UniProtKB/TrEMBL annotation:
This is ATPase AAA. It comes from the Bacteria. Residues 6-238 form the ABC transporter domain. Pfam families: ABC_tran. PROSITE patterns: ABC_TRANSPORTER_2. The lineage of its organism: Bacteria, Thermotogati, Thermotogota, Thermotogae, Kosmotogales. It comes from Kosmotoga pacifica. The keyword Transcription does not apply.
Length: 238
C-alpha cells in the first residue's frame, strides 16, 4: 500500500472569492499522527475538510487550485462516497447533533435499526472498556445523550468513529473540549488503536497533543509556518 496517505502540492483555497489557504505543500504518511495546530481562524478546518470535499457542502463558492492526492489519486477524481467510507471526519457540530439521540437511537444509527446491545462484538466491547464507556451499557437506553457529561459524550463520538474502522480519522477541534484527564485517556486510546490508521487532529493548543504527534503542522492565516518534527518545534519555540 502507498506509504503516503495525503500529498498536497501548492494547494490554494478561495472561499467566496477570498484567499483562505495559501500554497500548502505537505506529505502525510500512512500510520502517523499529524497535529494541525493554529489559532482560531487559521484555516485548520478548511484544510481538513478539503481532504473530503466537505467545504463544498458548507460554502457557496469554493475554488481549490493545486493538488491534493489521497493514496496517490487526486481527490477530485475519487467518488465522495468512497472518500467518506475511508476517511472519517468529526468536528464539534457532531456533538450538538448527538443531543437529538437517545443512547439506543445513537447505537441504532451507527449499527442499523435492528441493533440491540447483545450484538456488540468483543472488539467493540473492548473498545468501550478501553475508553471507560462501559457504564453506558447499564444506563437506561432511552435517556438522551444530552444528559451525559460532555467528556463522556465526546468519548462516545470518538468511539463511534473508531468502530467504523476507517483508514483515516480526522478529529477537527474536538479534543480541545476534553478536560485534561479525559484527554489523556483518549490520547492513549488513539495511540493504542493506531495500527495502520492515519490520524489527523486539529487543535488551538500545541502542548496537550504534541507528545503523540509524529508530524506537526503550524498554520496561521491560511499559511504553513512550520511542518516537521514536533520536537524541533518545541526546541526552536516556533
Ligand atoms: N462560516 C464561514 N463563513 C465565512 N467564512 C468562513 C466561515 N468559516 C470559516 N471562514 C473563513 O475561513 C477562515 C479559516 O477558518 P477555519 O474554520 O478553517 O479556521 P480554524 O483554524 O479551524 O478555526 P477554529 O480554531 O476557530 O475552528 C476564517 O478566517 C474565515 O475567513
Amino acid at each position: 500500500m502507498n506509504e503516503t496517505a495525503f500529498y498536497l502540492e501548492h494547494f490554494d483555497l478561495k472561499i467566496n472569492g477570498k484567499n483562505e489557504l495559501d500554497d500548502i505543500t505537505l506529505t502525510i504518511k500512512r500510520g502517523e499522527i499529524t497535529l494541525i495546530y493554529g489559532p482560531r481562524n487559521s484555516g485548520k478546518s478548511l484544510l481538513l475538510r478539503s481532504f473530503i470535499h466537505l467545504n463544498e457542502e458548507l460554502f457557496d463558492k469554493v475554488e481549490g487550485t493545486g493538488r491534493i492526492e489521497f493514496n496517490g489519486i487526486p481527490v477530485q477524481e475519487l467518488p465522495r462516497r468512497e472518500l467518506r467510507q475511508k476517511i472519517a471526519y468529526i468536528d464539534t457540530s457532531f456533538l450538538y447533533a448527538m443531543d437529538n439521540f437517545t443512547i439506543i437511537e445513537f447505537f441504532k444509527f451507527l449499527k442499523g435499526k435492528d441493533f440491540s446491545f447483545e450484538d456488540l462484538t468483543d472488539e467493540e466491547l473492548d473498545l468501550l472498556r478501553l475508553l471507560g464507556l462501559q457504564d453506558i451499557l447499564h444506563l437506561n437506553p432511552k435517556i438522551s445523550l444530552h444528559s451525559l457529561p460532555s467528556a463522556e459524550k465526546l468519548t462516545l463520538l470518538i468511539y463511534s468513529t473508531l468502530i467504523r474502522n476507517p483508514e483515516i480519522v480526522i478529529i477537527d477541534n474536538v479534543l480541545d473540549h476534553l478536560d485534561d484527564q479525559s484527554c489523556v485517556v483518549v490520547k492513549n486510546l488513539l495511540l493504542d488503536s493506531k495500527g495502520d490508521r492515519t490520524l489527523l487532529i486539529s487543535s488551538r493548543f500545541s502542548h496537550r497533543l504534541l507528545d503523540i504527534a509524529d508530524l506537526l503542522i503550524h498554520l496561521k492565516n491560511g499559511k504553513i509556518l512550520y511542518a516537521g518534527n514536533p520536537e524541533n518545534f518545541v526546541m526552536t519555540g516556533s
